[in-house]
Amino acid sequence: MEELTQPLKVAFADTYAFYVKAQNYHWNVEGPMFAMYHDFFGKIYEEVGDAIDQFAEEIRAQNSYAPGALNRFLQLTNIKDEDLVQLLPTTMVANLFADNAQVLASLKLAREAADKYGQNGLVNFLEERLDKHGKHAWMLRASMK
């Protein structure tokens, strides 16, 4: 079942990395539009954070172990870690937009694998995540104009 669980774990790691980066930006954003960006990043990381536990449980439901160590997340994710904390808010938005696109791509691959194996409940969960990240894409894209 590695053909199903591996893309699921990558999508989970990408989701987790995106969550951490959005939270980092929420904490460290500065500038004249601080309150707006602080709230914006907070809404993103809270929504994604609310899905983390269920995502791990979906992996466990496939009789596989959910990644739980930071090193394992770094091995699995396609999202570059953010070491800088002093970034312009517009750079933060652009980075999250690009990272969200990666999350969408990995969720689509996981969804295709779940569909191939007839895992309808998992397909539904992944479709919901695709919808949520689609909305994040719209909001991030609109914020860059």
SSE diagram, text form:
Blueprint: H1 2-28, H2 34-61, H3 70-76, H4 89-116, H5 120-143
Describe this entry's structure for a reader:
- The model has no long low-confidence stretch (mean pLDDT 97).
- With 145 residues, this protein is mainly alpha-helical.
- It is 79% helix and 0% strand.
- It has one domain (2-143): Ferritin (Up-down Bundle).
- The chain has helices at 2-28, 34-61, 70-76, 89-116, 120-143.
- It is built from five helices and no strands.
- Helix 1 packs antiparallel against helix 4 (89-116).
Short précis:
It is elongated, with a radius of gyration of 15 Å.
Helix content: over 70%
Q: What is the terminal separation in angstroms?
A: 43 Å
Shape: elongated
**Quick one: how many beta strands?**
0
Number of helices: 5
The CATH topology label is Ferritin
- The sequence of SSEs as H and E is HHHHH
The name of the CATH architecture is: Up-down Bundle
Round the mean pLDDT to the nearest integer and report it.
97
Q: Rounded to an integer, what's the Rg over CA atoms?
A: 15 Å
Low-confidence stretches: none
- Summing up helix and strand content along with how strands pair, one would put the structural category as mainly alpha
Largest sheet: none
